[in-house]
Structure formats: structure tokens, C-alpha cells
Amino acid sequence: MQEWANQLCENRQFGSKMTDSKYFTTTKKGEIFELKAELNSDKKEKKKEAVKKVIASMTVGKDVSALFPDVVNCMQTDNLELKKLVYLYLMNYAKSQPDMAIMAVNTFVKDCEDPNPLIRALAVRTMGCIRVDKITEYLCEPLRKCLKDEDPYVRKTAAVCVAKLHDINAQLVEDQGFLDTLKDLISDSNPMVVANAVAALSEIAESHPNSNLLDLNPQTINKLLTALNECTEWGQIFILDCLANYTPRDDRESQSICERVTPRLSHANSAVVLSAVKVLMKFMEMLPKDLDYYGTLLKKLAPPLVTLLSAEPELQYVALRNINLIVQRRPEILKHEMKVFFVKYNDPIYVKLEKLDIMIRLASQANIAQVLAELKEYATEVDVDFVRKAVRAIGRCAIKVEQSAERCVSTLLDLIQTKVNYVVQEAIVVIKDIFRKYPNKYESVIATLCENLDSLDEPEARAAMIWIVGEYAERIDNADELLESFLEGFHDESTQVQLQLLTAIVKLFLKKPTETQELVQQVLSLATQDSDNPDLRDRGYIYWRLLSTDPVAAKEVVLAEKPLISEETDLIEPTLLEELICHIGTLASVYHKPPSAFVEGSRGVQHKRLPGSAGSGESVDSPDPASAAGVTEAPPAVIPSQGDLLGDLLNLDLTPPTATGPPPAPSSGMQLGAMDLLGGGLDSLLGGDIGGSAAMGAGFGAAPAAMPASFNAPVSGGLDDLFDLGGSVGMPMGAYSPPKTVWLPAMKAKGLEISGTFARRAGVIQMEMTLTNKAMSVMTDFAIQFNRNSFGLAPAGPLQVLTPLSPNQSIEVSLPLSTVGPVMKMEPLTNLQVAVKNNIDVFYFSCQYPISMLFVEDGKMERQVFLATWKDIPNDNESQFQIKDCHLNSDAASNKLQGSNVFTIAKRTVEGQDMLYQSTKLTNGIWVLAELRVQAGNPNYTVSLKCRAPEVSQCVFQSYEAMLKN
Amino acid sequence: MTCLYLRAHSSAGASSVSRQSCHIDTELYSWHSHLDLAAEMIHSLFLINHSGDIFLEKHWKSVIGRSVCDYFFEVKEKAVDPENVPPVLQTPHHYLISIYRGKLFFLSVIQTEVPPLFVIEFLHRVADTIQDYFGECSENVIKDNVVTVYELLEEMLDNGFPLATESNVLKEMIRPPTILRTVVNTLTGGSNVGDTLPTGQLSNIPWRRAGVKYTNNEAYFDVIEEIDAILDKSGTTVCAEIQGVIEACVRLTGMPDLTLSFMNPRLLDDVSFHPCVRFKRWESERVLSFIPPDGNFTLMNYHVSSQNLVAIPVWVKQSISFFESGPSGRLDITIGPKQTMGKTVENLKVTIHMPKTVVSANLTATQGNYTFDLATKVVVWDIGKLNPQKLPNLRGSLSTQTGAPKPDDNPSLNIDLKIQQLAISGLKVSRLDMYGEKYKPFKGVKYLTKAGKFQVRT
User: Fold this and answer.
1) Could you give phi then psi for residue A829, rounded to 5 degrees?
2) Among A64-68, A114-118, B191-195, where is mean pLDDT lowest?
3) Mutating which of A17, A19, A237, A417 best tests the B interface, going by the most B Cβ atoms within 10 A?
4) CA nearest to A208, candidates A602, A710, A659, A633
5) Please, which residues bridge with residue A295 across strands?
6) How far is CA B7 from CA A464, A869, B128, B137, B423, in A?
7) I want to staple A130 with a disulfide (CB 3.0 to 4.6 A). Which of A94, A563, B96, B381 is the partner?
8) Percentage of chain A surpassing pLDDT 70?
9) Cα(A284)–Cα(A255) distance, rounded to whole angstroms?
């Protein structure tokens, strides 16, 4: 340090006398000693110079605490500059020299009585900064006087001092009654005093979350709003942040506060602007949407937000993080401002990435052409991270704006042609997602993708490519070669790629069993024997087990239809978003994490919620408990902060190893490779081994839920436990099944009578039929076929009538159905046309299946997804039905429905009425959301259904009725 | 006139093209934090120079060790370009909020939830104050005035609450150094610290001190507009907007009450004012009514958004191409006037960020000089005044590294220019009236248009 100072001095060309750098020139040897002498000099000027030297050393982090007594001796002076310098020193070192610090107390106490308000304020301010317990007790009396000082400058300084003292000794502050004095200052005549009192109270309140320190009522609010206009910019921030905690009584009060806060949007200080935006965003929740003022306010919010983006890049960054929240909550505010988010060449990278994110959020059919042109431009920039994100963004556009998908795909293909390695890899990852969103539309590009196989060196891109090859194996002639080429270095691949490769090869095998038996055997043995990754092994065993027991079932499981990926993939979960909107402008809003993530548990953070709207229909539509008026129940539990949903949604098959249970113990049955793969001799081994592996849940949770009964049958106990671990794949009991009815009367079918019904057992749809021979001759050679139907129902195997059916004999047949058959919309929706053949003729009949057969086991929506989806589905899609004469209570109803895979996600009770929020997923991935209202003692239920495909609502309602009444 | 709020444009040369960029994702450091229960705003401030030395530290509370900055240095290392260091960082026990101004980092340490914009605004205000006091904000100047800077910091913040950030209030408490005063103080033992309460501090007009007296009363306003624009390859405007600022220099005796009115105030899409401006009058009459601070200040910022038609003063015809084979490329740029409202375009400069593989440029300029910086791969063509009769042209060949493939990234052009006596938005001040005082002041308005972030894609 000293060398640096000397050098600095030498380097200076002109007289260093004029500047403070001269204070660095003392030599190291005896430096402290010299300073000591100077500090004790009789000459005032010399003293001051010496203190300056000490301060200069302090500013560069040098330890000059040894001079404490000498510096304190200089304190009693009438020279204000010297006094200030000594105070500066004291604040820095008092903590390390508490006994010495006591020496200063007398001077402080004296200075608090000084006729000059500047000195009184300075003394009280400095005293509060000396964090030494012994001093605090001496501070109380001077502080009390200063809080009531005639000069507002002293009062405002004293207000802050209360907060300082509270930080050192909270009990003392309470005992001395300082908090009450502080509260009185909110009514002070001077706006600066008010602002500082608010700031101090807010700070104290933060450490006492349950205290009622800032008792906000219309009177105090009015005082704050008055002070808001007159205090400094910083004071305005304190007041606005405090206002944001207030909940107006009604929409009129809300509007009047908004009106008085709006002028702050024109402040030059961006922090004031953002705090004002927070207040307005929160309070406008209470305004009826049809109010003129509501529209006016929306319009007023856009220009200041745009202006924030022309500020310094650091301010832009914080503004952009907040705008990201605002556009999720109220996209209409900035929907016309796309251009301001266009990325400029010399924006810092952190600004570029944020702008890109918002561009995607604002992308719509109206502006998509512009956005795509920009994204394409960005994809040729220099910065690799930015380019990657731009390529991803193109994919997100395709998924978000359906009309643009084709253009996006062709843009991505253009980019792949550039052969820039990381661009190609990103493009392939997003194209996989596009396939997931629009199946059977863009597969023609697969050939181009395959050309780039060799250049892929990132796990995510490799995994995506492998997924594509496996998924579309039937269209890729050399799929087996491609996959085999990956297999060579199997053990060097990342887990993600290994898992994907395993699945892809199994898919390939199921599609082209003849040529690929060897390949599948190879991958299964690599995964199960040569790997020590429990997830990989477990998945390998599952596939092996499936393939060996029942290839048909395997097909259903592995090739089951995947749910479409959702449109907006990385939305913040609505409750968190609401909370973050209340925290606009804070660190929480920058990190998009709830404030509770910032503080340790002891602190106790109150979760802020947006106020409900008055008089609008929103509270009725919304299943969100907090936004409904008049609900008095405990605040909902906070949903733990979650990471990027994107990854999870897109990579159902790529689930990273989350649960890492102990690997299964090696057993003697491990030499599997020698066994015939399809021979099915594995039961005993699997029954014991897999059941013990806790990691199974993670690996398996990703697999489709449709689990054929035939799979369940031979392996009992062990696997049931296993499925429970998987969580979503529970084994429902008591699913509703209607009684059998006659589908084909004997007179129409030359003596064959068929009656039947449908049931869903263990995740498989069963068509249960009784065939009766009412003719005179024996019937043989039964076969069954379905016409195309709405949900792609098709027999999963042949009709098993093994023995000939003698006259007057009946036989019970259970036909498992799959949902991967050809699809055609039927009228009515659940109509099924069936052809049955026997040795006599072919007969046709049609029947209707209850739609509840199609409710899948993993139809339980995450609570937050439910909320988002419910809000997202337009109200036009909502239909309401009455169920009459139902005498179950809500719990019984819920249980009953659960048996048929209608899952209750939340329940709340309002004025004796139970509201159940339920979700159901159909085999083709359509979600049906329901709100079931049950009033105690009233046999009439109300069901409101929301679904993106409203045509199923009627059927679902009929099922509801049937399920509940049986 | 110095512009306090002039945005920190990275000058073309400074933003070198090194893009091993940082991850904003600060998950780098585990999320769970052990925040101190103590609540205060800004805990400490570190000033850090370009090469990463801490040369000043100020703690408003207990002393925090310098090691806290190590997290920052780690990120700074990754970011390569100092401009790319994210402004908000999380460490296990603190948050670090920083700004980058004048090749210095102002790094503040935060321990509790605090509005980051508040901190960033404050840090910029510190930099502004240093600039205002000492003429520039640089390491040398701060070191030369370290005690004054320290006193200023103490005056600006108390326990994390901003105390006095208005320049004129500060100047009454701590006098800015002048050579004369330094000499006088040295001789007489006088002090730089005011010993009376600043008069503006608690009045309803904290920005103005009482008892101002001038022999020459004058009020000058500079309307300065910057065009931010992106033009595409063909010269079509992708987006363009105007950031305007009215800088004032007012030296008037007493308590003048001014009213500034515009010919066409409705041009402005968004405005933000100095606290002295009466917002209600603007809302109702679209005039600026205010009691001005004494001296230089920013009266108003405004914004003309891209939804309006923004005039683009020059056109650029350019072609930069690289050949698939052979280690070379060609460059040909011509610039001409477009919508200049009859004014002359001056200080015209084109900055071209070349791909990394370019090693030399052999160009000929019909006007002005060009330089090629091998380290940053930036070509700067300094043209000067634009002559509409003889359009400047720069052309020639570029050499790329032998064996390097054709560059993937397109070069980007940035244009700098100035047009005197023109506000390109068309904004015009119609009159300035003074009330409350009897003398007749000198009045003046100047207009200036500059290029802000003016980018041409290739």
C-alpha cells in the first residue's frame, strides 16, 4: 500500500501540495509515531492535517486504530471540519475500541445541546452510528430531546437515529417509548421529517413483522400522500414503498390513491418511478375493469416503463427484470412497445438477455414477423450465450404463436445450414420441442437434422437428436444405424443421453422388431449390467421386464401418446407472480424469487398478496382463494420457489436423476445377457430387486401412465409399492363402470347377442362383453375391429374367445383397449362403431363409452399449473351444469371421483358451500378443469367445467353425474 | 455544458469484442442466504479501478472486509468486458450492487432487501457529485481529493438513508475545491466545511439556496437530443427513438419563478422532470413552470418513442463481404445526408466492429482518416463534416487470418454525429417568462442533435 502511495506521488507531475494525495506520502517507518506527534501538536492546522492523513489511510483500508486516543483528543474543537473528521474516524473504529469510545460520550452529549442545529444533528447522527452498547444508554436522553427539537433538520436526523438504536438494542428503544415518538413524527409538519420517520418505521417493522408499527389507516395515508409531493426523491421512495403495503377499503379509495401517485411516474429518479409503478400495479387490481379510469391508468403506465429503458444499463437491467413480471401480469400495458426491446449492438450482455426474454413474452400473431426477423439477426451475433438464447427464442415463438411455427422451422433450418456448431445444436434442441407441440407436421425436416448428427457434442443436443430418431424411427430408414453409432461410446455419454438412447432403441425395437433385436439386447445389457447409475439400470430393467412379459403392453407404455407441451413454458407460477408484483422494485423482483428466500426463517416474512377486485367477475371465475371477497381463512401455504419449468416440461423423457437411492444389491441373477430376452424368465428376479430400489420413482415417473393390466398381473406385491413411489401412478380402485347393456341383439346378428360395458382397471380401458350364442350352431373364430373414433380407441390385442361357443352358452370376454388407433371425430363424441366377426358373418353395432374411461391416472394437475390454466382458458369455454339429487358430502364425492381419476386439487369452504377444484386428463392429453360446488343439505351440485376443447364438456358432465350417483 | 445525466455510452473503441460472456444466472452462489438481521440500506461502498484494485472504501456501519469483493472479481473475470458485469450479484451473506462509470466500478454492499434501483440511482448520484465537484470522475481525481470525497460520502448517506444529494445543498456543506480557496485555506487555516445549516435543506424548495446574487442575470437552456436507431442492411429503419434532455444553466438573483413553453409539447411521449417542475401545470397547460436551482441542472428528460416517425439524418450504403476461399474480404461504405432539415452534419464518425479473424484493413477514405485497432478489431473512420456535394466513401480490402473460415458473425456499424441548432424531433421552445423578480435576464436556447446508439446492421 505504501509503495503504491509513494509511486503515486512520484508519478505526479505537478505540486502534490494542492491535493489530498499528499496525505499518503509519509514513510512507512514510524508512520504511526509521526502521526501521533502531529495529532498532539498545539497548532490547530497541523492537527487537522494529521487527522486528514489518518482518514486518508482509513479510506484505503489501512488500520490506524492505534491512534484512537490521540484522534479522540482532537474532538473538542470549534472547527466544524475537524469535528466532522474526528467523527468519521470514531464511527469507523469505536466498535473495536469500546472502552476508549466512552471518552467521547461527554462531547457528544454536549454537542447535542449546541445552539447550531447542524452540530446538534451531527452529534446525534454520529452517536447512533457508534455501535457500542455502553454508549447507547447515554444516547437516550439526547435522542429524546432531538426528536422534539424545534429544528426539522435535527428531528429528521433523530428519526433515523431511532432506527439505528433499534438495530443495536431493540428492547431499549421500546422501553424508552421512542417508537411512539416516531409514530407521532408521521404527522410532522415537515415532509422530510415524515419521510424519514416512515423510512425508520419501515425498517424497524421489517424486524418485527407482526408488530403494528405502521398502522396504515385512511388518515395516515392521507398524510403520507401529502408529504409525498413535497419531500425529496429518496423520501418519496420510502413513502411509496410504505403505501404499497396498504390495502384500500374499496375501489374508490384505491382510485383516489392511484390518482395522487400517478404524477410520480414523471420523476427523474427511476427508483421513484418503479416504486410508483408498484403501488399502481397493486391498487389497480381493485379497480373494476370497465371503469374508464382503469384504461387511463393502463395507458399511463407504458411510457415511463419505456423511458426506464433509456437509462444507464444497470438501471435498465433492474427495470427489465421488473418489466418481465409486469408483462406476465398485464401484457396489455406494453403490447405495442415491442420495438423498445430490440437489442442494440452495444447493450451489455445482461441487458441483451433480458430484452430477449421480454420480446418472447410480448410475441403475438400481430408482431411475430418483426420478432422473427430480429431473432434471426441476433442469431448471427458474436456473443455465444446470446446467440444460443436467440435460437431458443425462435423455438419458443413457434410454440407460442402457432401461425408462426412454419416460418420458425424454416428459419431454424436456415440457421442449421450455417453449420455454426452451437447454433446447430441449439436449433436441434428446439426443433425437438416443436415436434412435441405440433406432432406430424414438420417431420419432413428430419433428414436435414440427421445430416448434422456428427457435429453434435453437447449432451442436450445429442439427447434431443436421439429422441427424434427414436420417436420417428419408422420414418428414418437407417434409424438403427444412427442409434447404433451412438451406442459405441455408451459409457462416455452423459446420463441424459444414455437414458434417451435406451428409450429410443426400445422404441425402435417396438416399431421394427425384426431387425433390431440384437440392438435392443445390447442396450439393455449396457444399461442394466455395465452401468452403475441407478436410474439407468432401473429404467433398463423396467423396459426389459415389459418387453419380456408383454410386448403389446410395452408398446402401449413406451409408444404412448405424449402430452403436448404447454404454450408458454416458463411462466412464473401465478401465486408467486402475485407476490412478486407486490414486491416490484425489490431484490425479490430482480431474482424472481419470493422474499422469503432472502431471509432466514426467524425473520418471518409476511406474504403479500394482490387485493381482490371489487365488483368484477374475476373473483367468481378465479379459483384463487385470496382474490375472492370475504374469504376468511388462513393464507395458503407458500409454494416453494421453483426453478425453470421449461426443462421439466420439455424433457419428460430426460428427467435427470433426482432421487438417488442405493443401487440394487448385486444378485446372482444378474447374468441376464445369457437369457433369451423375450423368454420371460425374469419374474422372480425383478420382483425382489426392483421393489427395493428407491430410485425407481424418479426414473419411472417419466414414463407414460397407461399401465396395462397384463403387466400388473404376474408381478404382484413388489411392483405395487414401486408405483406408489412414482407418485402419479396410483392404482385406483372402484372406478365407475356402468352396468352392461345389450349392444347387439340376437335377432340382428344371426343368434349372437353381445352385451357389454366399459371399465378402466389399473390404467387400462377394458371393453367387457358377454357373448351369448342364441343360435342353434356352434360359433367360432371371433374377431373384433373398431371404426375410427374420437379418441383413437382400438383393441390392444385379439378378442380372446378360445373355446368355441356352443348354443345357449355365454362367455365373458375382457378386451383391453389402447388409445393409439386412428382418430376421427364422432357424433356423439363417445360413439364407437364396432365390427364383430365369427364363423357365420360380420356384424356391426355401435355403442357409447363413458368418457370417464379415458381419464388417465396422472390427471392430477399441479396446483399452480391449475390456477394458471384456469385463468388462461377463456371464459367462453366454461360450461355449467347442475347435478340433482346427489346426497354425498363433498369428501365422499371427492373420494368417489378420485376413484375414476378425477382429482381434487384444492378445496375451500365459503359460507357453508364446499368448492372442490378438480382436474382430469383425457388419454389424448386434453385437460378438463372443474369446480364442483356442494352445499351441505342441498342435493343439487353445480359443476363448472373449463376445457380448451369445450366439446368434451357435455360428456364429462354426464360422467360426473354417473360417477357420483353410483 | 456538462450533462450530468449523460448516459454512459460505451465509446466505440471501448467495447471490444470479447464474448466469453458471463452468466447472469447468479445461482453460482447458493440461494439460501444468511442475511444479517440488522436492517439498513447501503452498508459499504468500494471504489474499484479498471484493473481490479480497491482504492477507496467507505463503511456506513461496521467494517466489512474487502474479501467480499472477491465474488465480484470472480464474475468480473468471467465477464471479460467490464461493461458486461451484471449489476446485481448475490453472495452467501451479501448482495453486491455495482455500476460502471468512467472506467471505475462503484460497488455497494447490501445486507437486506433493498430496492436495487434505489442503490443504483444513488451510486450514479455519487459519481455525478464527484464529477460535479472535481470536473471528472476518475481514479486520479478521487485519490487527489480523497478526504473531500470521504466527507461527501458521509454527507450523502446516513445509516443507509440518503441525506443530501442535491448538488447545491452539498456545496454549502462541503465547498468544492478551487485553486484559490485551497491556497487561501492553506494560508489562513480556513475550512472547506460550511458551518451553517444549508438553507435549502428543509425549505419547500430544497434545490435552491436563499440569497443568490448575480450582477449578470442569465438563463440558458440546451435542448439535446440523441437518436437511438437500428437500420437494417438495406437502410430501412428497424426502430428509432429519441432521448431528449433539457440542460439548464440558470444564474438569476433572488427567487425567480420561470415558465418555459414549447411550440409543440405534444410531441413528447414521456417526460421526467427535475423536482422543481410543477407537475400540475404540465398536466393542464403543457408548460414547464418552476423555481430553478442555482447553476447547472437537468430540467427535464423526455422520450419520443419509436411509434412516432423519427427522422434519420443520414443514409448509409454499405457492403462488407468476406470470401469463402482466400483470406480476404471487401468493404465499401458511403454516407450521405437524409433528413437534416438543411443543417450540416458534423463530427461524423463510423465505428465498425470487425469479426475476430480480420487481421488488417487496407482501405482508402475519400474524406477523413481511418484507423484499425488490431486488438479490438475495430475500424474507426473519422469523417468530420458531411459535404452533401462530395459524399465520403471508404473502401478497400480486408485480410483475415490465413486458414480461418469465413466469419460467422456480421460486422456492425455504429454512427456518431452531431447537428448543431437542430432538435431532430422538431421540438421548439417558444418563450421563457420570469415572474417574481423585476430585473431582465439574458435568455438563450440552443439545440443539438447527436447520435446515441445508432447502429447499422450489415
Assistant:
1) -55, -40
2) B191-195
3) A19
4) A602
5) none
6) 44, 43, 11, 14, 18
7) A94
8) 82
9) 8
DSSP state, A115?
S
Q: Give the whole-angstrom CA distance, residue B216 versus residue B443.
A: 11
Q: How far is B274 from chain A (nearest CA, A)?
A: 6
Beta-carbon contacts of A950 under 8 Å, excluding residues fewer than 6 positions away, are A876, A877, A879
Predicted confidence at residue A220, as pLDDT, reads 86
Taking 80 as the threshold, does the pLDDT of residue A603 lie above it?
no
Let me know: does A468 contact A439? Beta carbons within 8 Å: no
- Does the beta carbon of B408 lie under 8 angstroms from any beta carbon of chain A? yes
Let me know how long chain B is: 458
Asked, as a colleague might, if the bond just before B115 is cis with ω within 30 of 0, I would say no
- B189 neighbourhood in chain A, CB within 8 Å: 44-45, 48
Whether A274 sits inside 8 A of B115 (CB atoms) is yes
Partners of B142 on chain A (C-beta within 8 Å) are: none
To the question of pTM greater than 0.90 for the whole model, the response is no
Name the minimum distance, in Å, from the CA of A191 to any CA of chain B: 9
Which residues have C-beta within 8 Å of that of residue B244, sequence separation ≥ 6?
B223, B224, B225, B226, B268, B301, B302, B303, B304, B423, B425, B427
Given a cut of 70, whether residue A677 has pLDDT beyond it is: no
Q: Do B193 and A586 touch (CB under 8 A)?
A: no
Between the CA of residue A564 and those of A399, A436, A569, B326, what are the distances in Å?
Answer: 10, 6, 11, 49
Q: What is the mean pLDDT of chain B?
A: 82
Inter-chain residue contact A263 with B197, CB threshold 8 Å: no
Q: Measure the CA dihedral B10/B12/B13/B19, to 10°.
A: 70
CB-CB contact of A526 with A510 (8 Å): no
Please give the Cα distance from A804 to A837 (Å, whole number).
13
Q: Which of B56, B270, B273 sits opposite A60 (nearest CB)?
A: B56
H-helix or E-strand spanning residue A549 = helix A534-549
Confidence of residue B224 (pLDDT cuts 50, 70, 90): very high
Report the distance separating Cα A606 and Cα A465, nearest Å. 47
In chain A, what residues touch B42 (CB-CB under 8 Å)?
A: none
pLDDT of residue A359: 93
**pLDDT, average across residues A223-252:** 88
Residue range A365-386, pLDDT digits in tens: 899 999 999 999 898 888 888 9
A390-447 pLDDT, tens digit per residue, is 999 999 899 888 888 999 999 999 999 888 888 999 999 999 889 888 887 888 888 8
Residue type, A546: L
Q: Cα distance from B115 to chain A (closest Cα, Å)?
A: 4
Helices (H), A550-692: 551-558, 574-581, 587-591, 618-621, 645-650, 683-689
Helix then strand then coil, % of chain B, to nearest 5:
20, 40, 40
The C-alpha cell that represents A828 in the structure block: 356423439
Give the span between the Cα atoms of A148 and A158, in whole angstroms: 9
Give phi and psi for A336, each to the nearest 5: -95, 5
**Start-to-end CA span in chain B (Å):** 35
Q: What is the mean pLDDT of residues A285-290?
A: 88
Cα B426 from Cα A459, distance rounded (Å): 55
- Pick the closest to residue A272 from A224, A317, A232 (CA basis): A232
Q: Summarize pLDDT for A728-779 with one digit per residue, the tens.
A: 333 344 577 888 888 888 888 888 889 999 888 878 888 888 888 888 788 8
Would the CB atoms of A382 and B305 count as touching at under 8 Å? no
